[in-house]
Structure formats: structure tokens, C-alpha cells
Design goal:
This protein has 623 residues and is an alpha+beta fold. The protein is built from 20 helices and 14 strands. The chain has helices spanning 2-10, 12-38, 57-62, 107-122, 128-134, 176-182, 186-207, 210-267, 272-275, 278-286, 294-322, 328-334, 337-367, 382-415, 420-437, 439-454, 522-538, 540-543, 576-593, 615-620; strands at 70-72, 75-82, 85-93, 146-152, 155-161, 169-174, 462-465, 468-475, 479-483, 489-493, 500-502, 508-516, 551-558, 563-571. α13 (337-367) packs antiparallel against α14.
């Protein structure tokens, strides 16, 4: 037998089978051992050691504890509140189905019963004659109140009495679950609660004495009058600043009108060299930096005074509520979440103001060539620079608004105790789902950023996009709006913009083609066209709009109807149409004066081919 076992032990296959059987037995036995150990009741249960009963997940989701109740496995706890102040928490067995609780009392019902017993001590319901005789209006005497422990049917009970009562009032019973929740013995917890109740009830009774009530009313009235006077003073200051601001606006309008009148008077006398700097002079004369403007400072002071008035009203209301025991906690809560939300709103408005200041300072520095060190902000064409600035500032305002609201929303979530990390995680998932559903919107935003960065076009440009030609009236990161020649406002998503024809970028050109007849002397026609172009260029009214001398390129095309003479006139942006109209008008008059006729279709006689002719006609064809 020993030899056979030795042989079996030497077999590798048998060893593997024995090992697998051992592991399977261990996996089967361990859960049984754990369940047997878990079935043994613990000797001393604490909060961290409370057994968690097994019940279906759907039942747990459908029977969650009500607000204010905390569940710890087999027990639930709820706070005992007196005059909106939490004293301690009581515990009761967990009730999973509150609609059918049977003999079980939910913990919130027990907490409300304890609070009702405490209110019976401090309630002000004494008749008027007893109030005058004893000097207090509460049910219990503040001077002779006694809170002590008593044994009732083997249970520890906290009771209250005074010199005028023949029967004690039971406040609450200290149970084993209360002691287990706090990790104390019943006697130690009862002594602790007795001290708390004795101190709090004595303080509540003292606060309800008639002389204390009168003093509180006087203090509340004083606080209200002080807040009202401070609010009225701030309002008067705002009115004074508003009147100063109105006078300042009228003064600025008058100064700007005088400056514009001087500019218009001197515009005729200015030379062509100074015309390029005229927009800069107008900017410096008619506009001052926003940060240092008196008008802006007055607006800031008015805004701060408005917020100060709101803060004074909130603090005054909180002070009035804090003088009365019934509303003490409400007054303190006004300085909590509502005050923090007002602070968040204040920070949002302040950030918006700072953003406006920085954007305006950036635009002003860009317009006055203070950013020439950066090549991206350098433009030789003032008109192009103006269009670029207006487009970039519009996009910056939108980005600033988005950033301010995002920051305010994050701070508001922090005030309500919602972690931003979980919001960002959920936002990322939502953004992923939205990105799948709104792919075109994302394409619009990306293409809009590229349009702004590459300066493909801007506000005021005349462009042709997908066969639509018109003036760019509005644009942002999502859409571009174009007004065509018939006055229609056309909205184009940025994602559909593939090819852009900018007709007013940096400079423009009049491309004029003149068709003259074959009987016309071509050299004479070219000379007449060149003379008209040079005369137009020499006049001061048109010279400022034409960037360089016109070029008559010569005969561009020969056809069976006419000869085409092409002329190029390089103009400032958006001036090609006005100059083209005037040039065509003058060409028409010059053609009439020099007896030059435009080309017209020539009559032609078609001769049939030789192979298509009859023999008699073919013999007459000369060889």
C-alpha cells in the first residue's frame, strides 16, 4: 500500500488533480465559515461595527431615509433641533418601509417628539396675571428649573421640573442604541445629555424673560434704523455720482463735436502724406483710455456703492433676526449660502469689469501702434487694421463672457458643496456625448477660430462665399452673416466655408474691359483710354482713393465682333465700385467725343464646302 501511494505521489498528473481539488474545497468552505462567524452576535456594537443586513438593491433605492436622517446599517439617527439649533442626535432601529412600519417608530418621529417636549418647557403660554405675579411668561420657571435623571421601568429618563410643578415632565429616554451610536454607556450618555439640556433650556428661558424681550426689540429696531440710514446715505451718493456722470457725458459729447468740426475743417488742407495718419489723430483726439477716464471711474464707484447698499441691507436683516431666539439660526444662515452667492455674483461682475477694461486697453494699444513689437498686430493698411481689431475684439468679448460665467458657476457649485471634480467628470462625459451629436457645431467653432487667426475676412469686408456675395455684418466662432446687394441677411455656418473670396482685403482693383470695333484705330483708342485714366488719377478727389497710376494693358482679346482693351486701376479697399462707375462714365463721353464705336456682331456669309456642291457649281469654283 505504501508503494502504491508513493507511485501515485510521483505521478505529475495526479499531483495536479489533488491540488485543484484542494483549491476547490477551500473556495467552498471559506464562505460557509465566514457566514457562520457573521451569524454570531457581537458583544459590543459600535457605529463602525454595525452589521449591514442584506436586502435587495431595488428595495434600498425605493426606501431611502428621508432628508435629515442618516442610516448606518441597522440603526438610523436624526438631529434634535430646538429654536433652529441642533442639540444632539437620537438613534432608532432602521425602518426600511416607512409606509408600513408596524410597531417600529421611525427615528425622525422620535426626534420630533423630543423636540416637542423641549418646546413645552420654553413655550410662552402663561396667563397674564401669572406673568405679572411671577415675572416670566414661559411654562417653566427660569429661576427654579431643574433637569435630572430618573429611572422609569428600568430605563434612564431625562426629566424636568420647577418649584411650581407637582408632576415631572419626561423629556426623552436614553436607549441602548443611543449609547451604541455614541460609543458610551447609557449612564455616561444620559449625564452628558442632561448637562446639555440643562444649559440650553436655562439659556432659552432667560432669553424669553420680558425684560430681555424688550431689550432685544430695542436692539433690533436700532439695527434696522442704522441699516436704513446707511442704505439711504449710499443711495444719495449714487444719485450724486449719476448727476456728475450725466454732466460729464454732455461735456464729452460737446468736446467730441468740436474736435470733429476741427478735423473736417482741416481735412481739405491736409496733404496726401498726412491723410494716412488722420484716423490715428481722430482716435487720439476723440477717445481717451478707458482705465483713466473719469466717466469709467464714476461708473465703478456707482457700482461699488450699489453693492455696498445691498450688503448693508443683508447685514441689517441678519442682525435683526439674530436678536430673537426663534430666528437666530435664520439670521446666521443669511450670512451663509445667500451671502456667499452674493459674493460670487460680485466677483463675476468685478471680473467682467476687469475683462472689459483689459479688452478696451488692448484695443486702444493696438489701434495706437503700441503693439508693433509683435508682428501679428502690425498692419500697414489702417482700414484693414480697423476691421481686424473690431473682429478680434468681438471674439474676445464672447470668450470673456464664457470664462466669467464658467468661473461663477464653479464657485456657486463650491458654495452648495458640490465637488467640481465630479462635475467636471460628468461634464466630460456629457461633452463627449454632445460632441458626437453636435459634430457640425464643433466644426463651426474650430473653423471660426481659424478664420479669425488667419484673418481671412473681418467685419466690413465684402466677400464671396459659396456663390454668395455681400458685406460681412456679423461674425463669431459659429456663424458668419452677410448682407447681399438686395438687402437679404444670409447666415452661413463656419463649417461650410471652404473657399472665401475677399474683395476688399488690403487693396482692390477695377478690371475694365472696353470692346471697340475693327474699323477703329486701335492706337487711338488706347491713347484715349489712357488719357481718361490719367486725368481721373490726377484729380485730388479721386487720387486719394487710387493707390497707384492706372495701367492700360493693351489689346487683351480679338474676336469676330470686336477688339478688347483692358485697363487696371488699383484702389483702396471697397473703392473699386465707385471709381469703376466714374471711369466708365468718362469713357463713354470720351468715345462719343472721339467718334470711337464699340464692337458689334459682324454679318457673315457662309460658303458651302467644295465636296457639298453640285457638279455644275463645282466646275465654276476657281482652282
Amino acid at each position: 500500500m505504501r508503494v502504491q501511494l508513493t507511485n501515485l505521489q510521483r505521478s505529475p498528473l495526479l499531483k495536479r488533480l489533488l491540488l485543484l481539488a484542494f483549491l476547490a474545497g477551500s473556495v467552498t468552505i471559506l464562505p460557509i465559515r465566514d457566514r457562520a462567524i457573521a451569524a454570531i452576535p457581537p458583544a459590543n456594537i459600535r457605529v463602525a461595527q454595525l452589521p449591514v443586513p442584506s436586502f435587495p438593491a431595488t428595495l434600498d433605492a425605493a426606501n431611502k431615509p428621508p432628508p435629515g436622517v442618516q442610516r448606518y446599517g441597522a440603526i438610523e439617527v436624526a438631529p434634535v433641533v430646538l429654536d433652529e439649533q441642533e442639540l444632539f442626535k437620537v438613534a432608532s432601529p432602521t425602518v426600511f418601509d416607512r409606509k408600513n412600519s408596524g410597531q417600529q417608530i421611525p427615528v425622525e418621529v422620535r426626534a420630533n417628539q423630543v423636540a416637542a417636549n423641549l418646546k413645552r418647557v420654553i413655550v410662552q403660554d402663561q396667563p397674564q396675571d401669572i406673568q405679572q405675579k411671577r415675572g416670566y411668561s414661559t411654562r417653566f420657571d427660569p429661576k427654579t428649573l431643574q433637569v435630572f435623571l430618573a429611572k422609569v421601568r428600568g430605563e434612564t429618563v431625562i426629566v424636568a421640573t420647577d418649584n411650581y410643578r407637582t408632576q415631572r415632565l419626561s423629556l426623552l429616554t436614553v436607549t441602548n442604541l443611543d449609547a451604541e451610536y455614541y460609543g458610551l454607556s447609557v449612564e455616561d450618555l444620559a449625564k452628558q445629555w442632561r448637562t446639555t439640556l440643562s444649559t440650553e433650556l436655562d439659556a432659552k428661558l432667560q432669553d424669553r424673560l420680558p425684560e430681555k424681550s424688550e431689550k432685544r426689540i430695542e436692539a433690533a429696531v436700532s439695527a434696522g434704523l442704522l441699516a436704513l440710514c446707511a442704505s439711504l446715505l449710499l443711495w444719495l451718493l449714487q444719485r450724486s455720482l449719476a448727476r456728475q456722470d450725466k454732466r460729464l457725458k454732455a461735456q464729452q459729447v460737446t468736446e467730441q463735436q468740436e474736435i470733429l468740426a476741427k478735423i473736417e475743417q482741416s481735412a481739405i488742407a491736409e496733404s496726401h502724406n498726412n491723410a494716412a495718419v488722420q484716423p490715428k489723430k481722430q482716435l487720439e483726439a476723440g477717445r481717451s483710455p478707458l482705465v483713466f477716464s473719469r466717466h469709467h471711474l464714476l461708473n465703478i464707484f456707482r457700482w461699488l456703492l450699489g453693492w455696498g447698499q445691498m450688503a448693508v441691507c443683508l447685514l441689517g436683516l441678519a442682525a435683526i433676526l439674530s436678536y430673537f431666539p426663534q430666528t437666530n439660526r435664520l439670521g446666521a444662515s443669511l450670512l451663509g449660502i445667500p451671502a456667499l452667492l452674493l459674493l460670487v455674483w460680485f466677483l463675476m461682475v468685478l471680473a467682467n469689469w476687469i475683462g472689459e477694461i483689459l479688452i478696451d486697453r488692448f484695443a486702444l494699444a493696438w489701434e495706437t501702434d503700441q503693439l508693433r513689437a509683435f508682428q501679428i498686430f502690425e498692419f500697414d493698411d489702417l482700414q484693414r487694421k480697423s476691421l481686424r481689431i473690431s473682429t478680434a475684439i468681438t471674439a474676445l468679448h464672447g470668450l470673456k463672457t464664457f470664462a466669467v460665467w464658467t468661473m461663477g458657476g464653479a464657485l456657486a457649485l463650491q458654495v452648495f458643496g458640490i465637488p467640481i471634480s465630479s462635475v467636471l467628470t460628468g461634464g466630460a462625459l456629457v461633452a463627449f456625448g454632445v460632441s458626437l451629436a453636435f459634430q457640425n457645431l464643433i466644426k463651426d467653432l474650430i473653423n471660426g477660430c481659424l478664420i479669425l487667426w488667419e484673418d481671412q475676412y473681418g467685419l466690413g469686408d465684402t466677400v464671396s462665399i459659396s456663390g454668395t456675395t455681400g458685406l460681412v455684418e456679423d461674425m463669431n466662432l459659429r456663424i458668419t452673416q452677410i448682407r447681399d446687394v438686395e438687402g437679404r441677411l444670409i447666415t452661413i455656418p463656419n463649417s461650410s466655408i471652404i473657399k472665401v473670396e475677399n474683395l476688399t482685403r488690403t487693396w482692390s482693383r477695377v478690371n475694365f474691359d472696353l470692346q471697340v470695333g475693327y474699323e477703329t484705330d486701335v492706337d487711338k483708342a488706347i491713347a484715349v483710354v489712357d488719357e481718361v485714366a490719367q486725368t481721373l488719377y490726377a484729380e485730388p478727389e479721386w487720387r486719394d482713393r487710387i493707390l497707384e497710376a492706372p495701367k492700360v494693358l493693351g489689346v487683351e482679346n480679338l474676336s469676330h465682333t470686336d477688339m478688347t482693351i483692358r485697363t487696371w486701376i488699383k484702389t483702396k479697399p471697397s473703392e473699386q465700385w465707385n471709381i469703376g462707375r466714374e471711369f466708365r462714365r468718362r469713357i463713354r463721353r470720351a468715345l462719343v467725343k472721339n467718334n470711337i464705336r464699340i464692337g458689334i456682331p459682324q454679318p457673315t456669309e457662309q460658303v458651302p464646302a467644295v465636296e457639298d456642291q453640285v457638279p455644275e457649281e463645282r466646275s465654276q469654283v476657281p482652282e
